[in-house]
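dumping this here before i forget
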Amino acid sequence: MHFILIMKGAAIYMKFIISGRNIEVTEALKDKVKKKIGRLEKFFNPGTEVHVTMSVQKARQIIEVTIPINGGVIRAEESNVDMYTSIDKVCDILERQIRRNKTRLEKKLREGAFRVENFTVDQEIQEEHDFKVARSKKFAIKPMTTEEAILQMNLLGHEFYMYSNADTKEVNVVYRRKDGNYGLIEPEF
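structure:
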């Protein structure tokens, strides 16, 4: 089930696309999302879409928020036993990501991706400076199936594994998700 909500603020509009999996998205949940995530609208241009997915897996209440912006994506996920707590925490994560990386995001995502005039640097949240690569590693990429890559990743005890997909001949990455399942990243041209 999908809901589309338009957040109206001081002449700024965010478009919320809210969906639920294994959960009924109540008006109270929608209002909480609009209120908490809507406070980030000052950082974005009018018309910015916010994709919110709420789900329940066993005792975990999970919220995933994705904000596509000019060829990039800001994303955060949080889980808790209470959905309202998950919403609060995911909003804090998003705001920290934006504040810490504001200069880099603005450069990478071209002029106009953010409303820079609304950024202030808090004492406790300083903008990150240069990224530092602590280690660099090269290795041969062998063609293999996704299942073989997952097995190799598990044998190495890594959280991700890069390989050449034997079927598509493209470089892919498999990774272990927080929920214990696996994810696959494939290039899109």
